[in-house]
Amino acid sequence: MSVIRSVFSIIFYTINTLIWFVPIFVCGLLKLIPIKPLQKLLSWVAKQCATIWVSFNSLNQSLFTPTKINVTGLEETKLKDWYLVIANHQSWVDILVLQRVFNRKIPFLNFFLKKELIYVPILGLCWWALDFPFMTRTSKSQLKKNPKLRGKDLETTRKACEKFKEMPVSVVNFVEGTRFTEQKHARQSSPFPHLLKPKAGGIAFVMQAMGEQISKVVNVTIHYPDGIPTFMDFAGGKVKQINVHVDIRPVSEELIGDYTGDSEFRVDFQSELNRLWEEKELTLQQLEQNHKQ
Questions:
Q1: What pLDDT is attached to residue 213?
Q2: Where are the alpha helices (DSSP H) in 65-200?
Q3: Less crowded by CB within 10 Å, the N or C end of the chain?
Q4: 201-210 and 263-292 are packed helices; what angle lies between their axes, rounded to 10 degrees?
Q5: Which band of pLDDT confidence, cut at 50, 70 and 90, is reported for residue 141?
Q6: Distance CA 252, CA 240 (A)
Q7: Are 106 and 170 in contact (CB under 8 A)?
Q8: Exposed, middle or buried, 264 (CB in 10 Å: 0-12/13-18/19+)?
Q9: CB distance 241 to 68 below 8 Å
Q10: How far apart are the C-alpha atoms of 260 and 266, rounded to whole Å?
Q11: Interatomic CA distance for residues 129 and 126, integer angstroms
């Protein structure tokens, strides 16, 4: 039965993606015309198409993927506001979950992606047309060899955030920087039993570029009671339940400042992020305990 579900679900995802790829990609190409009002209009059209695309993906899940998503803490939200969404990251399913939970409740979700993902067939071009920032991860060893690479991520983020200022947006950042695995957890010696260490750079650059404009931080905790699923597990209906806890809070003063130039602020920012991660760890433990009862 799960194989049949997977087949129909993937066919639906594929057809839906191909249908909406065309107008989204055309908008992306036309945005290359350097006329600001036209670019703004085309960005709006592309995001409307993407919102409908996500809505049909959610319909697909309702039809072929009988997964119950329990959401707590989702307060009143606005479509005409700016949000920073941070979440723990365990699976590609996280993206589908976030899109389903927040679709039409907050502005369209824009993810920061690894630059290699632009080569994903069809989807990579959609993400490009939707102004998803593609980031180059610069390691310490690369910086040592080529100091000119320092600040490149900040520049990429700054350029992306210039576009984000033109219309309401939800900027999504998986703060751990990569998907959770036991191997990565052990390698990091992470102090959080269910989480990798949070990396401050990504959201610090966003807050440095547009902190005064972002009105709320949306801290999302995703919990898979029966273990971390793959996309095929989800498409095949093997994931019976997903718990999502949402904590919406105003932007604290500790998150706004000069992360690159102020070492004291940098320490305070990381401390604030660690505090949020401690809360997230407690939330995960509570969700796990509730599931066992």
A1: 85
A2: 93-102, 123-129, 140-145, 152-164, 182-188
A3: C
A4: 120
A5: low
A6: 36
A7: yes
A8: exposed
A9: yes
A10: 7
A11: 5
